[in-house]
Amino acid sequence: xxxxxxxxxxxxxxxxxxxxxxxxxxxxxxxxxxxxxxxxxxxxxxxxxxxxxxxxxxxxxxxxxxxxxxxxxxxxxxxxxxxxxxxxxxxxxxxxxxxxxxxxxxxxxxxxxxxxxxxxxxxxxxxxxxxxxxxxxxxxxxxxxxxxxxxxxxxxxxxxxxxxxxxxxxxxxxxxxxxxxxxxxxxxxxxxxxxxxxxxxxxxxxxxxxxxxxxxxxxxxxxxxxxxxxxxxxxxxxxxxxxxxxxxxxxxxxxxxxxxxxxxxxxxxxxxxxxxxxxxxxxxxxxxxxxxxxxxxxxxxxxxxxxxxxxxxxxxxxxxxxxxxxxxxxxxxxxxxxxxxxxxxxxxxxxxxxx
Length: 355
Hints:
Blueprint: E1 7-12, H1 20-33, E2 37-41, H2 44-49, E3 53-56, H3 83-95, E4 100-105, H4 107-118, E5 123-127, H5 143-164, E6 167-172, H6 179-188, E7 192-194, H7 202-214, E8 220-225, H8 230-244, E9 248-251, H9 264-282, E10 288-293, E11 296-301, H10 302-312, H11 326-353
Parallel strand pairs: 1-2, 1-4, 4-5, 5-10, 6-8, 6-9, 7-8
Antiparallel strand pairs: 2-3, 10-11
Helix pairs in contact: 1-9, 5-6, 6-11, 7-8, 10-11
């Protein structure tokens, strides 16, 4: 089956994430080692439509694992969502004899990969997003680095908060998922963490802060997930000051959280995912995403992963489950339950020990 693949393409799409370059290096080196040429597609699906490609060698990618961002650049491409756009992408693949594609990104990237797979271009997805919001995978490439970036920023803010007896409200990225917020909130010893997945008791926070100040506590960190909206965070700053008398400042690190040198955990996880993606593709497997389940790098059908994601996020539409067996639906529910249990446990711990 390996002889079928003479040349494969690799692209990154959607938001960039630290560790994407480690995937690119891993895919390139693994494929070339098996006698397969590698083509870098610049700017995601937009680059595929507009024929922006370049051959990759092992030398090209030799040291990119230590770089943040994406060596192949990224873009969001509405044109690719149309049949005309997809046909342009397929024409580029045929022009350059690209036999398959490995696509790194989030759920939008995977939808593109499955659309190409259906139309005869075998694709494998690799999760690359700081948000950790791909339900199919316990962790995603970029998540660990993003958390470490927030933690370092929070530690620095703690220093100045302590000096001036202040509170800092830090709004962190994560799109509509609160994973970065609860994980970093715990690591920073935040006195409060607000996420969209859970009701937030402001009065309880104010009470806890006043009691802590009365007992001699000088500095406070409150972490807010961006999914609650910008108005929430900035309003909370004013409410804390009014309710507690504690001077409070607001910080939004925003896209800083997406950049920076990938951590060891992200580099190694990304490298394993890239190697597994090449293995699967050359074995003739297509239309799957590489995921981490219980510390094992494995694969899952993209269609299953996308509907699983909708189930977890309570976004199922009529007919979404019709093509799946009862056993598959039960497996989806089991994964959702595991995910919610983990989130609930983390949220309870951060609120129990935050002081």
